Amino acid sequence: EESWRTFEQRGAACRLRGDAAGCARAYYEAARCDRFLRSQREHYSSYLFTLHYLSGISAEELARQHFVYRQLYRDELATNEVPAGTVDGGEKGDASETIASETVVPIVRHDERRLRIGFLAPDFLESSAARFYEALLGLPQDAFEVFAYSLSDEADDFTQRVQSMVAHYRVLSPYDIESSEQVIAEDGLDALVDLGGHTAGGATLMLLAHHPARIIIEAVGWFDTTGLPTVDYLLTDGVM
What are the residues facing 218 on neighbouring strands? Predict the structure, then answer.
């Protein structure tokens, strides 16, 4: 019953060796064998990340493997959708099956207040991704009230720059998943932008299961579908 630990260690070893196929297999098995839901989600996120290093995998297969991820939120997602696949190797569905998001409430701009936009990240430390999303954080303060949510209390010069750019900077590391999601929900965001996706074990995605903002957008930190139906949009471009 503890075999998932062996697979987790094997995945880490394969990653250090540059063995993408071995790494993907190991993390998949770790997700399948793990007894704890949170770490099962982490292993599967690591598996999805690694799939992008495999040559020859089709876009359709890549999408289908991402759609399996929502199985790990079946208790949170009150939905009657037929799943596209199962983590435990059960029957797989059609790769072309789409995920139906919840009905989106349109954003209505009221003259009496600014739009409330939140950005959620594993951390706000200097990185290649940070150089891209920094421009998004600098929204005009007369039209937007910007929130930044970090899952880490680590800080560097870039963190200090982010803190000076936004109206509210919240560190969520002292809270569990449910409490963190509640903190976000209580801020009454018009839109929440997730900058993590399946990086860092999908830590940010776990805060999106109950749709804590009117609209949820995936951007910059992840490069394709998350597979989680509570994410409404992907901010992307023609190249990506």
Answer: 194, 234
- The structure tokens listed for 13 are 């070893």
> Residue 220: what are its φ and ψ, rounded to 5°?
65, -60
Structure confidence by residue, pLDDT tens digits, 130-176: 999 999 999 998 999 999 999 999 999 999 999 999 999 999 999 99
User: What DSSP assignment string belongs to the chain?
Assistant: --HHHHHHHHHHHHHHHT-HHHHHHHHHHHHHH-S-HHHHHHHHHHHHHHHTT-TT--HHHHHHHHHGGGGGGTTT----PPPS--TTS-----TTPPP-PPPPPPP---TTS-EEEEEEES---S-HHHHHHHHHHT--TTTEEEEEEES-----HHHHHHHHHSSEEEE-TTS-HHHHHHHHHHTT-SEEEES-TTGGGGTTGGG-TT--SSSEEEESS--S--S-TT--EEE--S--
Report pTM.
0.84
